[in-house]
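Protein modeling request. Please complete all fields; requests missing the sequence field cannot be processed.
Requester role: graduate student
Desired output: 3D structure, token encoding
Chains: 1
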Amino acid sequence: MRAGIALITAALVSLIGEAVVAAAWDRRAYSYVDDYINFLGSRYAGDFQGILISSPLWWLMSLAWIVAGTLVAVACIVLGRRLTGWRRLMVPALGVAHAVALILFAVFPLGPDRFADGTLPLYLIGAFLSIIAGNVLAVVVGLSHLELGLPGWLAPVSVTLGAIGLLNIPVTYGWVPTGLAERISLYSFLLWALITGLALLRPLPALAGRPEPVVPGI
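Delivered output (218 residues):
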């Protein structure tokens, strides 16, 4: 149940934070289709490569990303305890990688400073690792639904959402507007987190994965 609550909260923190911060842009309207997601967390105000950035609540978006990433990591550590074999290590590792990526994404926002101080690679690592780790996590958890006591329908849903988020990176970048392309991969993961979180709130089967007890005399 704790993992479910953490995943649901992570998704809501990210989505609500994004909506609030985007609405607060004061020099022009933020575009969900054209603008980089990371512009919401940029402390820089002014023209950047021909694009006007002005996000007064940048700190709130950065905080939301850090909180959301931490919650996903906590959920994955809890889920990992229910698993065996390679999944027992991989699920927590993916959760921690996703959290680290979102922290980098928040601490090194896109803007002139990334080029001036040479930290652009840290922003890029945060951007791509968060998408890759999050959507791979969706696939792995979906394939682990039996061990986790999750309903069977969640497996194809998780794998499909994760695949969409991963394949979107090479398929859409370059010809689909930047903001839209990023959001396909981001929202596929957040939708998975919401659905999986709700599924985890269901009571676990008492005997799931355990042998039937032997009763003497029967």
